[in-house]
Amino acid sequence: MSQTLRTALVQQTAFGDYATVTAATGERIRQAAAAGARLVVLQELHTGPYFCQTEATGQFDRAETIPGPSTELFGSLAADLGIVLVTSLFERRAPGLYHNTAVVFERDGSIAGTYRKMHIPDDPAFYEKFYFTPGDLGFTPIRTSVGTLGVLVCWDQWYPEAARLMALAGADLLIYPTAIGWDPADDDAEKQRQRDAWITVQRGHAVANGLPLVAVNRVGFEPSPDERAGGIDFWGTSFVAGPQGELLAQAGTDREELLLAEIDLGRSETVRRIWPFLRDRRIDAYQGLSRRFLD
């Protein structure tokens, strides 16, 4: 059986209401399947606008249960097309308890597994701590018919510990649905530094763990509900890296795009034999990693 996995990344804007946005997403998913993709990955919170730019209790009305309407919609799509599908939803777990949750669907439409975002940011225009409770499912890869998926979400991508724990638990590839962009007030040099850092840290996770990596970002400008704020210019740049950090495919910064990549899952074995980082880890000397800071 071939270990080459054709993967599709759906980079899109998310303007409009739920029905409009999900219809556009569904069409992109169908295009991906028609192009031969067996794994399709969507961006963070893809069913609508990035609502975390402000703190407003009314935005909690966007949340839904899992299972719920979106899992029914995307599960049906996965079954109709015979694909494994990675989605990202605003989960209503209980009154007053909400998560930023990735849901992975198997080819028959069933839920293969979920991951609740562990690292929750609280920065200007990214007020996620107001909305999301940190995840409690741990860093557990999700087994599917196309491989074992180490699914993490956005802010998780800055933490090497998260990627490493997914790798140690047997992930075949790392996947990051994402919503990240520029403050329009930043100058071009600062924008370039931020985007380069985002790409570099994730390519580093691929290298350090000998795993391919998929990052899918939103694209386009989204105004803030607060007229005094500048909004967010999501920089797209969705990409796929191989287990040595090599770029296999990359999308643009300013447009919607269906990005296709061929991922050779068998290369991880080859790379790890010549760069045996897991073998040489000094697990007897890393106790300080469980502390906030070494005072």
From TrEMBL:
GO MF annotations in UniProt? N-carbamoylputrescine amidase activity
* Superkingdom to which the source organism belongs: Bacteria
What is the main EC category here? hydrolase
Record's keyword annotation contains Ribosomal protein:
no
Q: Which UniProt keywords apply?
A: Hydrolase
Pfam families recorded for this chain? CN_hydrolase
The CN hydrolase domain, residue ranges: 5-265
- What is the protein named? N-carbamoylputrescine amidase
Q: What is the lineage of its organism?
A: Bacteria, Pseudomonadati, Thermodesulfobacteriota, Desulfuromonadia, Geobacterales
